[in-house]
Design a protein that fits this description.
By secondary structure, the protein is α/β, with parallel strands linked by helices. The chain contains 26 helices and 15 strands. Its main location: other.
């Protein structure tokens, strides 16, 4: 109860938590001299204490108050721990205060921070009468106001956290520094403290992490059906397997790692894989979760349903084929009641059956029309006596229908009378105007097939390098070392038009040249590129060394072609040419005769044409002339055409697009004589099995 205190040069502290940690807090010293005391807060604990009698406590408080009253200093009674207060204790404390003159009571809770500031401000008002009188609020009313204030501050603080923290990787130290200037942060920390502010931050971060994990989970689960469809599309493979065996089967699939990733640590959502957004492969341990197990079961059910639907489609088609009620032209509405049963409706929608029925009807009608056409051919005498204008009278049509009426092939088209009559009229027109346009064989007409063979090299040009559709273009490789290739390329270009066109036998061809003088294994010196498909190669030499270069280059090129299975490059037409030496004369003792002899031997080895100065009628020491160039290009053009012919004929025989007799007739016209055709055909026929000509086409030809 002393009114003057002396503690010079001692550190001031506000709570015992600061003891021993003074350096962590603001250090203030007690002032020199005596410190006057202006008033007292008389604190009364109203909670239920252990081994404590409140009545005895209240007597002690009463004695203490009597001592304080003697000082003539203002006193405020402060009831503490009201958040755990006993109602009787609070009531007795108020009764004690009422017995004293002007003794005010403030109900507080330091833990809840309720009315603490009010207790001090009440005492200050009693010390300084000039201040306004503080309104004393009961504990529960103050607690309600405090709770509302805290709730509002919490909402604002959570909004601030959500605006600043977007990633679950954020750390409290960095975020708290960012938020310190914000009033939302300051207000909440003032009311609730830094600990609770951090707790709310950690809750928000955890929520962000869970949301991220859930997004990844949904992504993986959405991808799982695709993975199952790709890895185990066959029901027989997994229908009777346990889950463990099914997982082992998945791991054994070649494309397993394309869809799944096996993590060293589990579960997947506790590993770093969850943050690897670039890797969308499914964690394999996800299959152990109920959601994944449900998707696996759905996959099984889908495969079972697909099998059952396929069985229903097959059963329906078999039902159609065996049913005597399904005839050509019968509408679906009439046939449905005869061919449908309850099982069909359980598994497939009616439009599916209608589609199958429509396809089956088309097959029936096409077959019935073919049979009816044969019937008309068998009764050809019916059409002999018609007028030349081929317009039968009504009576004649009646006679035709009467004669054919008993035939089953006639009755089969009973529901398609208009189409049946049209077939009769079309047949009559063909009898009197037999052309490939009116032929009932349509695309199978022999005349049309021969025309197709001649016009398009046996039905179609195959995607083969030798069957280049650019007939008016010649791609030529010029091979030679030490500038020979470039020199000849320049000489040939000088003979071309300004747009690289060259005239051969009065026809204009586009000429593309590719001079090569280096290692042909390098892409820059390759015979063939994505934009250049050679039709032939001119091989130039003027010495033993340049001839060796040509031989090595050709062998390397053919080896590469065999490795790529490129028959075109392996069979490329070659022409070996002896050209002049720069400056003339013999070099290294080499004579013209020895170079010619060596060239002939190499040409025989490479199975190519050899061109020497003597055979061309020119003297040694001159390059080949324009006439020679024209002959060489014409030879390459003929070789290109023959190779196109052979490849097309082989493909046609393979695909069944033509038989041997068809091809022989077409080749006779192309080659000019049967011997030339046989020379081309014999190697092909020896390698390809022949089949009889359909419809007696060979005999007709």
């Amino acid at each position: 109860a002393a009114t003057k205190l002396a503690s010079a040069e001692k550190l001031m502290y506000f709570c015992t938590d600061q003891l021993g940690l003074e350096q962590d807090f603001e250090q203030k010293q007690m002032p020199d001299g005596k410190l006057p005391v202006d008033g007292f807060l008389l604190c009364v604990d109203v909670s239920r204490g252990m081994n404590r009698n409140f009545d005895e406590q209240l007597k002690f408080v009463s004695n203490l108050y009597n001592q304080l009253a003697k000082t003539k200093k203002p006193v405020v009674v402060v009831l503490t721990k009201c958040d755990e207060g006993v109602e009787r204790y609070i009531r007795d404390a108020h009764a004690f205060a009422l017995g004293k003159k002007n003794l005010q009571v403030v109900e507080t809770s330091a833990r809840s921070n309720v009315n603490v500031e009010l207790a001090f401000s009440t005492l200050v008002q009693l010390v300084d009468k000039s201040r306004g009188k503080a309104k004393i609020i009961p504990y529960f009313e103050a607690l309600k106001q405090q709770s509302q204030q805290i709730a509002a501050a919490k909402d604002k603080y959570e909004w601030l956290v959500s605006r600043i923290v977007k990633s679950h990787h954020e750390a409290w130290a960095n975020v708290s520094r960012k938020m310190q200037p914000a009033p939302e942060y300051q207000d909440y920390v003032y009311l609730e403290g830094t600990g609770k502010a951090k707790k709310l931050f950690l809750q928000h971060v955890q929520r962000l992490k869970q949301e991220h994990i859930e997004r990844r989970r949904k992504l993986y689960l959405a991808k799982l059906p695709q993975a199952l469809d790709a890895l185990v599309p066959d029901l027989d493979e997994i229908d009777h397997l346990s889950r463990a065996k099914a997982e082992k089967l998945l791991e054994a699939k070649p494309d397993f790692l394309k869809w799944f990733v096996v993590l060293e640590e589990t579960p997947w959502d506790a590993t770093s894989h969850v943050d690897n957004v670039d890797n969308e492969r499914i964690p394999f341990d996800l299959l152990e979760t109920p959601a994944a197990e449900q998707l696996y079961e759905q996959h099984l059910e889908k495969l079972r349903d697909e099998r059952k639907r396929a069985e229903m489609r097959r059963a329906f088609r078999e039902n159609l084929e065996s049913s005597p009620f399904v005839t050509p032209g019968k509408p679906w509405e009439e046939a449905r009641s005869f061919i449908m049963n309850e099982d069909f409706y359980l598994w497939l929608e009616e439009p599916v059956y209608m589609e199958i029925y429509g396809k089956h009807q088309k097959q029936l009608i096409d077959r019935a029309k073919e049979d009816f056409q044969e019937l008309l051919l068998e009764y050809s005498e019916l059409f002999y006596e018609l007028e030349l204008d081929a317009k039968p009278s009504k009576e004649k049509m009646g006679v035709i229908q009467e004669v054919l009426g008993e035939e089953q092939r006639f009755k089969a088209l009973q529901k398609l009378q208009a189409e049946r009559d049209a077939l009769i009229l079309k047949h009559i027109h063909f009898v009197y105007h037999p052309t490939k346009e009116t032929c009932p064989g349509c695309a199978g007409c022999v005349d049309a097939r021969v025309e197709q063979l001649l016009g398009s090299r046996f039905i179609r040009q195959h995607r083969n390098p030798l069957a280049d559709p650019g007939v008016d273009r010649l791609n030529l490789v010029i091979l030679g070392k030490d500038g020979l290739a470039r020199e000849l390329a320049n000489e040939i270009r000088a003979l071309c038009t300004s747009d690289d066109k060259y005239v051969i036998e009065g026809k204009m061809y586009e000429l593309a040249l590719r001079p090569i003088e280096g290692n042909v294994r390098l892409p820059v010196n390759a015979f063939q590129t994505p934009t250049f498909q050679p039709h032939g190669c001119l091989c130039l030499y003027n010495s033993k060394e340049s001839l060796s270069y040509v031989v090595e280059s050709i062998e390397k090129s053919r080896e590469c072609a065999v490795g790529r299975r490129d028959n075109h490059a392996a069979q490329l037409p070659l022409t070996l040419i002896l050209v002049n030496k720069r400056g003339g004369g013999d070099a290294g003792g080499e004579t013209l005769q020895s170079l010619i002899q060596q060239g002939q031997q190499i040409a025989s080895k490479l199975q190519c044409v050899f061109l020497d100065p003597a055979s061309a009628g020119i003297g040694y020491g001159r390059n080949i002339n324009e006439k020679q160039i024209g002959q060489v290009l014409k030879g390459l053009l003929d070789a290109k055409r023959n190779l196109n012919l052979v490849v097309s004929a082989t493909s046609a025989l393979k695909d069944g697009a033509a038989d041997a007799a068809d091809l022989r007739v077409a080749m006779c016209l192309m080659c000019g004589d049967p011997a030339g055709a046989d020379e081309v055909l014999l190697p092909i026929l020896q390698a390809q099995p022949c089949r009889p000509a359909p419809g007696g086409g060979a005999a007709v030809l």
